[in-house]
Amino acid sequence: MYTFHRTRKVLGISLSLILINLAAIMERADENLLPSVYKEVSEAFNAGPSDLGYLTFIRNFVQGLSSPLAGVLVINYDRPAVLTIGILCWAFSTAAVGASQHFLHVGMWRAVNGFGLAIVIPALQSFIADSYKDGVRGAGFGLLSLVGTMGGIGGGVLATIMAGHQFWGVPGWRCAFILMATLSVLIAFLVLVFVVDPRKKASTFHGTGENFDRDELVEKGNTSVSSVWLESWMATKAVIKVPTFQIIVLQGIVGSLPWTAMVFFTMWFELIGFDHSSTAALLSLFAIGCAVGSFLGGVVADRISQAYPHSGRVMCAQFSAFMGIPFSWFLLTAIPQSVSNYYTYAVTLVLMGLTISWNATAANGPMFAEVVPAKHRTMIYAFDRAFEGSFSSFAAPLVGILSEKMFGYDSKAIDPVMGSPREALALSRGLLSMMAVPFGLCCLFYTPLYKIFKRDRENARLASFKEATSKDEEMF
């Protein structure tokens, strides 16, 4: 009988993690949809780069402001239910964007999309943090990023290819949004029915310590509104005052700017003259490089942190951030912007993706899990997304503004078929401005963690031990 229950537990964890990774795939695919069809949206609504940048800004800004809500919800409800709510939010808004006939409506639904993502992403991250131990947590985050990026590839390629066709008289980019929304609803149903919160599993097989905290957090029987907000406020204060959190958020604010600016890569390659298929292939190679790199970074950091437990992850993060500087310069400036350089772009994008994508999996995600008690993990991921998302959301419109006002981008001069080398050059200069410098600052801002992380890690372990001891005494 014991063997049967043990086997069922292992299978249950595997199924839950599979569905969580599927949710991550759909989340990243949804994020990549609009940037993949920027050119078509620009033509449909007569919008320039700054207008398109505002669409990304609206979604990211709302996502950042709404992220703390995920921490509040997870304190009082099972994460599968929270994830389902968020997935349905983004599914509905994605379908609405595909059906919108006015640019203002697109902006409104992008805001709703940001709200859904704000609920989902921190809950996914804390789910992974609770499902893996300290020594392999980097690999866990790396796997989540790997499969999520594959979803981004699928969403981007699907939208880019479909954008060049019409289906039953409907533009292909609109059909891509409707299709993605339908698949997201299916994933939401599967998550709600089959995923089990690891906090419940932990409390079933263990009765004390950290697992008791997790079980206690999802009990809802006697929870009043005042106690909900009190618990949320206590968790917020506990998270914000951690110096490691402050440092990682500071680097993340500038470090996420280049990634937000990269939403213009699709438009940039098409302006150079690449067709939809070639553009999709190039961006897929970059995404594959990022996917493998994020997993590789997590594994490498796990290994190095065994030898250097307090500095190994920081070293990996600084290496990755620094590599963004030469690669940004080479991609956007050194390579002549011509379709004849397809293979040069391809190799550069793969190598760039392999090296610049380590930070979240090698350092940020695992380090967050080690500097606060388990019950505050969703809150720390939520506030990280709140600060980083809110500030990085300015990158996309800034790229558009710089390209138009400083480097002479003119949306009226674009050939819908052949693109425009002049406008491609202007856009690349705007991209470089929002990539090279932020990557350098990101690398620099990690430095204080060499001293601070060790102290915060030890404080969190001591606090967890004391709390577990006091709960054991109360039980007996």
Offer a concise description of the structure.
The chain is mainly alpha-helical. It is built from 22 helices and two strands.
Write structural notes for this entry.
The protein has 476 residues and is mainly α. It has a single domain (15-199, 235-475), classed as MFS general substrate transporter like domains (Growth Hormone, Chain: A). Helices cover 82% and strands 1% of the residues. The protein has helices spanning 2-36, 38-45, 49-66, 68-76, 79-99, 103-131, 137-162, 172-194, 198-205, 209-217, 225-240, 243-261, 265-272, 276-307, 312-334, 342-356, 359-371, 377-392, 395-406, 421-433, 436-445, 449-475; strands at 166-167, 170-171. Helix 7 (137-162) packs antiparallel against helix 14. The radius of gyration is 22 Å and the shape is globular. Mean pLDDT is 76; it is low at 1-13 and 204-225. Residues 16-451 form the Major facilitator superfamily (MFS) profile domain. Belongs to the major facilitator superfamily. Spinster (TC 2.A.1.49) family. GO terms for molecular function: transmembrane transporter activity. It is a multi-pass membrane protein.
Q: What are the defining features of this structure?
A:
globular, disordered N terminus, 476 residues, two-stranded antiparallel sheet, Growth Hormone, Chain: A, mainly alpha
